[in-house]
Amino acid sequence: MKKQGPYTKHVYWLTKDEEAGLRKKLAAHDTKLKSAKGIVCTPLDVINKISSVAPDVWDDTCCRQGSWYRTSDKNGLYLVISSFELEGFEDQKAATITESDFVPTRLASLKDKQALFQDSSFKSRIPEEWQHVEDIEKRIYLRWARRLGSDVQDYDFLYLSHTANHANFINPRFFVRDSNGIIPYSIDQSAHLCSCCVELFQVIGSEYKKKLVAPCPGATIFSRLKPDRYLLVKKA
Predict the structure, then answer these.
(1) Domain limits of the chain?
(2) Taking Cα atoms as reference points, which of 206, 198, 186 lies closest to residue 104?
(3) Residue 41 to residues 171, 214, 224: CA-CA distances in angstroms?
(4) What's the confidence (pLDDT) of residue 2?
(5) Cα 82–Cα 23–Cα 35 angle in degrees, nearest 5
(6) Rounded CA gap, 222 and 83, in Å?
């Protein structure tokens, strides 16, 4: 049995015509470009070699979370996530994702999260749709948090954590440094996160050369990512 190499995903953003061209090119080499259905993050599963996420998938299961995509410069583009690099698409590459051994020395306290949430320059970036959460979604996220080991009972705590975490990739307060500058990281455990896809796929924080992103509950459930195992996102 062939040994599987280190976890690696390459992230590309393509126009509709570019995606169609890639699909045709791959088919000529007997490689199928899978189309993600319902969930944006399923292409992150190691079993998916190469997948495409059409714009309307952001309107499906995670529609509220997709508001970050719809209000970004990626809106209308196709997301392609591949386990191998795509020849001829170097200009469309956004990032490479690999597993990291990073363990943060400090996670955000309630006070830290409130400060991130209240940042005036960040608040102007929050999509209107993100702020309106249906009761059924609140129950789902509380259930997922408990599934990942949290004892949280209050959705307001989760909403604050979710939003503050996105804020940290826009105006970072929690970060480490290397020779290339600051590296923002996810501010809480996976149980208390949401929509890590927007950081992993460069919808948020694309100006940073590196980011350290912990998977959200959805990514651990639908894409089998390891809870609390940080992923290193390196800008292309």
Answers:
(1) 8-99, 110-223
(2) 186
(3) 24, 13, 10
(4) 53
(5) 65
(6) 17
| Mean pLDDT of the chain, nearest integer | 96
Return the residue matching tokens 């020849």.
87
CB 68 within 8 A of CB 204: yes
Q: How far apart are CA 224 and CA 209, in angstroms?
A: 26
Amino acid at position 2, single letter: K
Look up residue 107 and give its two tokens. 């996670």
Burial class (CB in 10 A: 0-12, 13-18, 19+), 184: buried
C-alpha 144 chain-centroid distance: 17
pLDDT of 1 over the 80 cut: no
Q: Please report how many Cα atoms fall inside a 13 Å half-sphere around the Cα of residue 162, on the Cβ side.
A: 26
- With contact defined as beta carbons under 8 Å apart, do 44 and 106 qualify? no
